[in-house]
Specification:
The complex is a heterodimer. By secondary structure, chain A is an alpha/beta fold. Helix content of chain A is 33%, strand content 21%. Chain A contains eight helices and eleven strands. Chain A has a seven-stranded mixed β-sheet with strand order 6-7-8-3-9-10-11, with helices on both faces. In chain A, strands 2-1-4-5 form a four-stranded antiparallel β-sheet, covered by helices on one side. In chain A, a hairpin with a 7-residue loop joins strand 9 and strand 10. Chain A starts with 5 loop residues before the first strand and ends with a helix. Chain B is mainly alpha-helical. Chain B is 77% helix and 0% strand. Chain B is built from twelve helices and no strands. In chain B, helix 5 crosses helix 11. Chains A and B meet through strand 6 and helix 2 of A and helix 9 and helix 10 of B. The complex binds adenosine-5'-diphosphate (ADP) and magnesium ion. The site of magnesium ion has 3 residues of chain A, from helix 1.
């Protein structure tokens, strides 16, 4: 079952309403992704993306349904699944090395201090922070802090990398270079990754597949969009690909209009267990001689 | 004019001190002219009456007395005449003993209260009632049950230092940022390791604030407690010198109490600075 490495099976999450009753954030949510895949989930603020990610992390459990990873139901947090939080969430009293080493020594509890530090240093170098390992988080810029968060998550060599809007607090330049970094590392190592974003271009650059989530309450997975761009795409010339604008327009159109109306105008044959898969592409170029036939 | 703020502040401090000492000196001079009196009577009345000298010692008397004490702080000539160093050592010993006993109880209990919303609510009424009780109000009860005045004084220190530490520890522990706890959870950190590597360092600045408040209160209370209990200690020294009508010694003791209190506070302030983390 390699095409179901992560499987979200009918999960639901409710919160009690202030005046009694309950609000359903989402229910009967189904989705699966294969090993080595990079999935992004996009949707409006408050639709429940963080909640989905937290259930995958095991930080909270769904009220109904189950998440399965590698054939085993998630019952709590695990070192197999690393989380990069929206805020950097570094421990401010530890140095950069101390923060990464804390994760490493949590995973390999019998390692010697030298071995832990050497392993941690490898990942600090990987994210380009060599020379800063003895600094405290308060001495780092926002981008550097997020890099430490990435190094910490990768250092435990997780089966799955979970990221909750990891770059949303960064300026555009820093965000771009960190996206490059993450894409390089994930494609080089075949890292399975699940990421929340509200940046359409970020999703197009990073994701193999993009999950579109409708507005809550009662959010649904409207469709799963396959990324038609080539795997060796580069951030700076994304827009040169013929498929870029069709894909981008499809995503923007969803965010602007369909995320609101989708639930009211369910497409015929919509099945919650198998959300439709779409692949927005450019029309195949029409040979010049046949131009008249098209009209 | 471009001297640093520190240098200027030091200068102003020195001027204030000088002005104060001068005013003090002038204030205790008294009138010089004294009516002639019978020598026998004058002997009985002492210098105060014969030379118009004020009963209040001046700064020079106090300075000389301090010098005297500093030269032999640890002499011991019986229960009512011990060096001021010995008396301070007694007081410090009681404070530190009572204080560390309080630390041993307050930190674990504070941790428990901070970690468990149930215990937080369950223990809250007790703490709310116990906290405002003047520690000296415990004294009769302590003397009656413990029957030992020295231990009673330690108990009073214990009971007055425990509340600020416990309350601050509980608050610091309950206010640890959720994201740091989530880091520990995703790394499958054991509860004990989490307590020592996440909660303790995160709450340390708040805990230290409580410890600092406590040591201040303990040092305030020891003087009063020793006045009541008697025997030894700087509080007893003050009371004893008052009975001897040695105002000079009382003033010296007051100064020393202030200096030792400041040293205690600054020591904890330094520890607090070490464990404080910038965010
Ligand atoms: N503890 C909570 N109590 C009540 N409602 C909550 C709680 N946590 C989240 N929610 C609600 O759940 C919804 C989804 O939240 P979240 O998953 O954080 O959304 P997103 O990450 O997509 O912005 C929001 O509407 C939010 O108000
Ligand atoms: Mg969110």
């Amino acid at each position: 079952m390699s095409n179901k490495f992560i499987s979200i099976e009918g999960i639901a999450r409710h919160y009690p309403k202030p005046g009694g009753g309950r609000t359903t954030i989402f229910e009967d949510l189904w989705f699966s992704m294969p090993r080595g895949d990079f999935c992004c989930i996009i949707g409006h603020s408050g639709c429940g993306k963080t909640t989905v990610l937290n259930t995958l992390a095991g930080l909270e459990l769904p009220d109904e349904g189950v998440n399965v990873v590698d054939g085993r139901a998630i019952e709590g947090p695990s070192l197999d699944r690393a989380v990069i939080f929206q805020g950097h969430s570094l421990l401010p009293w530890r140095t950069v090395l101390g923060n990464v080493a804390y994760a490493v020594s949590s995973k390999w509890r019998d390692w010697s201090r030298e071995k832990v530090n050497a392993h941690a240093m490898r990942f600090i170098e990987l994210v380009g922070l060599k020379g800063n390992e003895l600094k405290k988080p308060s001495e780092l810029s926002g981008g550097m802090k997020q890099r430490v968060g990435i190094a910490r998550a990768l250092s435990i060599e997780p089966k799955i990398l979970l990221m909750d809007e990891p770059f949303s607090a960064l300026d555009a330049l820093t965000r771009g270079s960190l996206q490059d970094e993450v894409r390089r590392i994930c494609t080089d190592t075949g890292q399975t990754a699940f990421m929340i974003t509200h940046d359409v271009d970020e999703a197009i650059y990073l994701a193999d597949r993009i999950i579109l989530m409708t507005n809550g309450p009662g959010a649904m997975i409207a469709e799963v969009v396959e990324n038609p761009l080539s795997r060796d795409r580069r951030r700076i010339d994304l827009h040169k690909s013929a498929d870029y604008y069709p894909l981008r327009n499809h995503l923007i159109d969803f965010l602007v209009t369909r995320s609101k109306t989708f639930a009211d105008e369910l497409p015929a044959g919509y099945d919650k267990k198998r959300p439709p898969v779409v692949r927005p592409c450019a029309e195949p170029p029409v040979p010049p001689g046949d131009a008249r036939k098209v009209a | 004019m471009l001297a640093s703020l520190n240098a200027r502040a030091t200068l102003v401090s020195a001027l204030i001190l000088f002005a104060f000492l001068l005013a003090w000196h002038m204030g205790v001079q008294g009138s010089k002219a004294v009516a002639p009196m019978d020598p026998e009577y004058a002997k009985l009345m002492g210098l105060t009456a014969t030379q118009g000298k004020s009963a209040m010692p001046g700064p020079i008397d106090v300075g000389l007395k301090i010098w005297e004490h500093l030269n032999q702080p640890f002499y011991d000539r019986g229960p009512n005449d011990k060096g001021v160093g010995i008396q301070l050592a007694f007081s410090l010993g009681r404070v530190l003993l009572g204080y560390f006993l309080a630390v041993l109880i307050a930190l674990p209990v504070g941790f428990l209260i901070g970690m468990s919303p149930l215990m937080n609510r369950a223990l809250d009424p007790f703490i709310q009632v116990m906290k405002p009780i003047s520690p000296l109000a415990w004294m009769p009860l302590a003397l009656y049950t413990i029957k030992d005045s020295a231990i009673s004084a330690i108990f009073v220190i214990f009971i007055c230092s425990i509340w600020p530490m416990m309350i601050n520890t509980a608050f610091g522990v309950s206010a640890v940022r959720k994201e740091w706890l989530n880091v520990a959870r995703t790394l499958e950190v054991t509860p004990l390791r989490k307590a020592f590597t996440i909660i303790l360092p995160a709450a340390a600045p708040t805990i230290l604030t409580g410890m600092r408040i406590s040591i201040g209160i303990a040092w305030l209370v020891i003087v009063a407690a020793e006045m009541l209990v008697g025997g030894t200690g700087i509080g007893y020294f003050v009371w004893n010198e008052w009975n001897n009508l040695s105002i000079t010694n009382v003033i010296v003791a007051i100064l020393l109490i202030g200096v030792v209190g400041m040293i205690l506070d600054q020591t904890l302030a330094r520890v607090a600075r070490i464990v404080t983390y910038p965010e």
